[in-house]
């Protein structure tokens, strides 16, 4: 938390805008489809929702702007676009990077 506050303060000191990009995990992004189908993931989904809720509240209370990529990632999945590699690797692939870049462009000053 202190690190994010420090980053935000440094940005403000030079007149820069600070955006915090939150990229969801695969499990979080698929949680609606998997609810009730994979019971062992229920605790993980609840834990992620709790952590995200606390993180977003903390960021808002510190005046930081959050860009949550969940809706954009889920929309890509609904279109049949896979934003991650088809392995256990949780990093975004080129499709995921494009989805996030388009989302950030919406939040960038014109």
Question: Which blocks of ≥5 consecutive residues have pLDDT under 50?
Answer: none
User: By helix and strand content, what is the structural category?
Assistant: mainly alpha
Instruction: Describe the strand arrangement of the main beta sheet, using strand numbers.
Output: 1-2
What's the average pLDDT? 88
What does the largest sheet look like?
2 strands, parallel
- Name the helix and strand elements from N-terminus to C-terminus, one letter apiece: HEHHHEHH
From the N-terminal CA to the C-terminal CA, the straight-line distance is 30 Å
Tell me, briefly, the overall form: globular
Total helix count?
6
| Radius of gyration from the alpha-carbon trace, in angstroms | 16 Å
β-strand percent reads 5-15%
Q: Count of DSSP E strands?
A: 2
How helix-rich are the residues, as a percent range? 55-70%
């Amino acid at each position: 938390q202190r690190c994010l506050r420090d980053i935000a303060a440094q940005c403000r000191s030079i007149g820069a805008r600070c955006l915090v990009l939150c990229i969801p995990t695969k499990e979080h992004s698929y949680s609606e489809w998997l609810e009730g189908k994979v019971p062992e993931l229920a605790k993980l989904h609840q834990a992620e929702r709790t952590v995200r809720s606390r993180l977003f509240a903390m960021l808002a209370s510190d005046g930081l702007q959050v860009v949550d990529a969940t809706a954009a990632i889920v929309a890509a999945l609904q279109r049949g676009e896979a934003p991650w590699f088809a392995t256990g690797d949780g990093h975004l692939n080129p499709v995921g990077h494009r989805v996030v870049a388009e989302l950030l462009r919406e939040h960038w000053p014109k």
